[in-house]
Amino acid sequence: MLIAHISDTHVRPRGQLYQGVVDSNAMLAAAVDTINALDPPPDLIVFSGDLVDEGRPEEYAMARELLQPLRQKLLMIPGNHDHRQNLRDAFPEHDYFINDQDCSFVYSGSAPVRIIGLDISVPDQHHGDMTDTATQWLDRTLALEPDKPTLIMMHQPPFSSGIPYIDAYRCERGERLAEVVCRYPAIERIVCGHIHRFMQLRFGGTLMCTAPSTTTAIALRLHPEAADASYVEPPALLLHHWKADTGLITHWVPIGRFEGPFDFA
């Protein structure tokens, strides 16, 4: 099973730049082209939040237009820049969310890997929160198929990355997530967005990684007093490859077209 994973696209109204610097809409279009060029194609596409930049209806209309060429099922959760109701209004066919206020979901069926989307964003705030509701729902959902290989997707990561200005907006009460996750060894991966960089670590007895953004990258500044900044680094997406004999393998995939292929000596 192949799962393409994009994040933090920050779509703007037509003709407007993201942060006044880059054309995030064109960059999402390039990401869609990269996904459609994957061979073999993915079985599923997941999106870990911040589809748009300001949560406005016109941004979601633009996002819908840009995502239209995708050929596979798309599963989304909101991030801190998203507006839940505006997202729902723009994508009414995405009827898998658990209720009108919570965009968490579970996607399983006959697929070899269960996908759990965990909506932990706080309205009008940039941080996330592992609330009582989120914690209890996740535990109940995992218990329904405790032995099934599972990928959990959330927006804000619950760990301290070492980049001070983004760590201020991580998922609070992340120890609750770790306490739940450690009871289910079939969890193959927890994937996040928000940081605009690829990172990986061990968390709760499993592996956690963050997806790069299709737009700008948060500056890799690890000094405790570092000022916030972004760079126009090469954009990328992730490709999660499930194999029964190895488990889940995560590939970092640059967005774009490059010279090659060349003979491998």
TrEMBL record:
InterPro entries recorded: Calcineurin-like_PHP (IPR004843), CNP_phosphodiesterase-III (IPR050884), GpdQ/CpdA-like (IPR026575), GpdQ_beta-strand (IPR042281), GpdQ_catalytic (IPR042283), Metallo-depent_PP-like (IPR029052)
Pfam families, per database record: Metallophos
GO MF assignments: cyclic-nucleotide phosphodiesterase activity; metal ion binding
Family under the similarity heading: Belongs to the cyclic nucleotide phosphodiesterase class-III family.
Segments forming a coiled coil: none
Keyword field: Hydrolase, Iron, Metal-binding
Calcineurin-like phosphoesterase domain mapped to chain residues: 1-197
Database matches in SUPFAM superfamilies: Metallo-dependent phosphatases
The protein's name in its UniProt record: 3',5'-cyclic adenosine monophosphate phosphodiesterase CpdA
